[in-house]
């Protein structure tokens, strides 16, 4: 948790004492992203295949960018 606070502080320039972090354990079907209920662990690929083509392209582009940044060591992922 402190690592999250430190990273947010470093990236944003906000003092650590001004940052609040709350984590809540939710089941995937308790969450919606991009207008779709998230899949259960292990069902991600099947879920992805059911998404509209425009959303699949967008999410794929994010993954490609994140992989490039991770390869450079700029982010974890």
Number of helical segments? 3
What integer is the average pLDDT?
Answer: 85
Q: Helical content, roughly?
A: 40-55%
Structural class by SSE content: mainly alpha
The strand line-up of the biggest sheet is 1-2
Strand content: 5-15%
Instruction: State the order of secondary-structure elements, H for helix, E for strand.
Output: HEEHH
Describe the largest sheet.
2 strands, antiparallel
Could you tell me the number of beta strands?
2
Distance between the termini: 17 Å
- Runs in which pLDDT lies below 50 for 5 or more consecutive residues are none
* Mass-distribution shape: elongated
How does the SSE layout of this entry go?
Layout: H1 2-12, E1 32-33, E2 36-37, H2 44-49, H3 53-71
Characterise this structure.
By secondary structure, this protein is mainly α. The protein folds into 2 domains: 1-27, no CATH class; 31-77. It has helices at residues 2-12, 44-49, 53-71; strands at residues 32-33, 36-37. The chain has a two-stranded antiparallel ribbon.
Summary tags:
elongated, two-stranded antiparallel ribbon, 2 domains, 77 residues, mainly alpha
In short:
With 77 residues, the protein is mostly helical. The chain has helices at residues 2-12, 44-49, 53-71; strands at residues 32-33, 36-37.
């Amino acid at each position: 948790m402190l690592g999250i606070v430190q990273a947010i502080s470093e990236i944003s320039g906000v003092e650590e004492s001004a940052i609040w972090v709350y984590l809540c354990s939710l089941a995937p079907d308790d969450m919606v992203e991009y207008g779709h209920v998230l899949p259960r662990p292990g069902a991600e690929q099947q879920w992805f295949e059911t998404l509209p083509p425009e959303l699949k392209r967008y999410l794929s582009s994010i993954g490609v960018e994140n992989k490039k940044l991770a390869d450079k060591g700029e982010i974890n992922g």
